[in-house]
Amino acid sequence: MAKEYLLGIDLGTSGTKTVLFDTEGAVVASALEEYPMYQPQNGWAEQDPADWWNAAKNTIRTVLEKSGADPAAVRGLGISGQMHGLVMLDENGRVLRRSIIWCDQRTAEECREITEKVGAQRLIAITANPALTGFTASKILWVRNHEPELYARCRHILLPKDYVRYMLTGQFATEVSDASGMQLLDVPNRCWSKEVLEKLEIDESLLAKVYESPEVTGYVTGEAAALTGLAEGTPVVGGAGDNAAAAVGTGVVESGKALTTIGTSGVVFAHSDSVTIDPQGRVHTFCAAVPGCWTVMSCTLAAGLSLKWFRDNFCREEIQAASGMGKDPYVLMDQEAERVPIGANRLVYLPYLMGERSPKLDPECRGVFFGLSAIHTKYDMLRAVMEGVIYSQRECLDILRGMGVVSSEMIACGGGGTSPLWRQMMADVYGLPVKTSASKEGPALGVAILAGVGAGVYASVPEACRRLIRTSAPQEPVPGNHEKYEPFYRTYLSLYPALKEGFQTLAQA
Fold it and tell me: Which of 51, 178, 242, 428 is labelled catalytic?
């Protein structure tokens, strides 16, 4: 039988990576193209949608050429994308302005406007989240408030990956996982919220049709085929937002499964067969890429960033030694932290270097070493940083547990997931076995799997994941270690409430 393929496009903030897989999930070829982010003012962040399309177009062509694959053997493609970005098109489908992307912070006033018009509790009940500057709805209002002439010319509003879909298929479409981050979707019912749109006076005709993630949303046009090397008529499925795509790519598609990502930020992401919303809005609920399911996730802002900050400021010797040995300095730092006992000799670190999102929603809180004394060394501080990051993830996991979203195993992802010490801390502090995924192509593999389901290669998303996703043997919690960490974790939990007022005073000093 002739070999068949699936294509996954991962549209990130720094670049787009396209990966061609065979139908057993093995990587056949991959290509990456980077592009800039523009910051016209402090706290603003924009990108040019043309850069995304050019990167997708070029990387598709590259992987097809590198692999020598017959384009007609590509059964389908899916796109994973950075969430929340605002793409505005005119009546001819032309981009009206650079996209305001997920990390842009200009919309605090519009968030207040949304909360006022919809009502704080009503907004959480419908969209499953409080008004956040990162989400799309506040960006739409910002353009309407500050660029009214441009807003008047807008006929289509898309998310970043959905613009690439439009260029491939000519269709205005989105899917539930990414649309959940717009703050305009009725998340429990998986459709646009007429109530929110009416209260915010946004015309529903501006929004794309909503699909489930594995559904076919369109087919590659003749024009796009000529530009990319794909076969005309190749099916393009809904795809998914980046975290939902990563969940599929690591097999977190059934109850009891969750992942912890320690990248720059930290994410705890769990699958749920039913919709569960935190009424306080401390964690986010989104529609899953698995039809009829949901995900609950947290986002802490300075997880891996805390360790990078410590490395850059206090670990010059380790950086130099690692360079001479041809090693990663984090490997040496791991070895040093491992020699320090649990609790870092009674030193606790709060990882709030950038303020905090989950579960605090407090832009004014800041990093803290608590309990510092003359006995402490640099290595105690290093261990405390690593433990503090895991405590912050555990606090989020405990909120998920309180919502009835209970995990029996954890997948560790991101740069931090490569550290055996951090994985062991995670297992011990969570009280759960921790695995890693064999594939490092999480989001791209996730949307390739969705494409395979849409094209009929696999019967369902869970069935495909059971067939394709391979994980390492679990790191089990060390007996007795959970109990040793507990008093330090309880101290960690007590510190933010005690310091909250002080953080506010400091911010206004």
Answer: 242
